[in-house]
Amino acid sequence: MGLRLGTSSWGEKGWVGTFYPRGTPPRRFLEHYASHFGAVEADNTYYRVPSAQAVRGWEERTPNGFTMCAKFPRAIVHAGAGPSPDPAAIMDGPEARASCDLFLERMQLMGAKLGPLLIQFPYFNRSAFAERGPFLERLDHFLTGLPGDYRYAVEIRNRQWVDEPMLEMLREHRAAWVWADLPYMPHPWEWPDGLELRTADFTYTRLIGDRKATDALTRTFSHLVLDKGPELVRWADFLRPVVAGPGEHFAYANNHYAGHGPATVRELAGLLGMESGGGGGMRQGQLPLGPL
C-alpha cells in the first residue's frame, strides 16, 4: 500500500524563489526537488530520448526510495513533425521503433528508482483515425512487443473510445489506464458504473487541467492562480480507498492544473492526511497515509 505523489517535471524556472530557493541553478533543481517529494514524472523525455549521462545523473541526484516515471518520446506516440500527429507512424515505423528501444535502454539506468513509463497519446480527430479500431489494434500490437520487465501506463484522450473491451485489452497487457483530469475527459467517478477502471496492479493519476485557461492567467507558474480546492477534495475522496488497498499508486500534478504544481501536490497530500518526511518535506518514495 502507498501513494507516490509528485509533480509532472521538475525543471520549471518559475519555481525559483517560491519552491526552489533563490539562486538555485537548474543543475540543482532535481536534488532540491527530491528533498521534498518522493516521486516525479519526467516530462522532458517526451521531447527527446535522454542521454545515458543525463539518466545516470538523475539516478545519482535522487535518494534511495525515490521514484521517477517518464513519458515515452513524441516520436512514438505522436510522430508528426508539426502539431498534427502522423497516424501512419504512431507506434510503428523505423523512427518509432528505434526511439522506443533507445528510450527503454536509457531509462533502465534508473534501476530500482524507475517507476511506470507513460504512453501519453494526443487527442485524435477523424483525420488521424476515422474510428478507434485501427488505433486499438496498433496499440495492442505495440504493447505486445514491449518487454515485460517494465510497467506501462496508457493515457487515451478520446472519451468515445473508452469502454470495457478497450480496458480489458489494457488489462491483458497489465498496463494501467491513466486517470487523467482534462477538460474534455470525465473524471474517474463520472464514468458509467459498469466500467472497471482499474486495469493493472498499480494505478496512475494525472492532474493536468485546462492548459488554455491556465496560460491565460500565468506563464511563470510561480504560484496558484486557480482555486481547485473543491475538485481536489473530490479527488481525495476518490483516491483514499484506492490507495488504502493493495498495489502501488502514482499521482502527479501538472503546473497547468492550478498554476503551481508543488502547491497542488501539498494540498492533495494534506487532504489525504499524508505524513511528512524528514526536514518537513514529503520524501521517501512511498508516502504513508496518516490519520484521516
Description:
31% of the residues lie in helices and 15% in strands. By secondary structure, it is an alpha/beta fold. It has a single domain (3-280), classed as Protein of unknown function UPF0759 (TIM Barrel, Alpha-Beta Barrel). Helix 8 packs across helix 10. Mean pLDDT is 93; it is low at 276-292.
Strand content: 5-15%
**Low-confidence blocks of residues:** 276-292
What's the pLDDT, averaged over the residues? 93
CATH homology superfamily name: Protein of unknown function UPF0759
What is the number of independent domains? 1
First-residue to last-residue Cα separation:
16 Å
- CATH-derived topology: TIM Barrel
CATH architecture term: Alpha-Beta Barrel
Largest sheet features? 9 strands, parallel
Helical content class: 25-40%
Count every helix, treating DSSP H or I runs of 4 or more residues as helices.
Answer: 10
DSSP summary, beta strand count: 9
From N to C, what is the helix and strand string?
A: EHEHEHHEHEHEEEHHEHH
Shape call = globular
Name the CATH class.
Alpha Beta
- Which structural category fits the helices and strands? alpha/beta
**What is the chains' assembly state?**
single chain
Strand order of the largest sheet: 6-5-4-3-2-1-9-8-7
> What is the gyration radius calculated from CA atoms?
18 Å
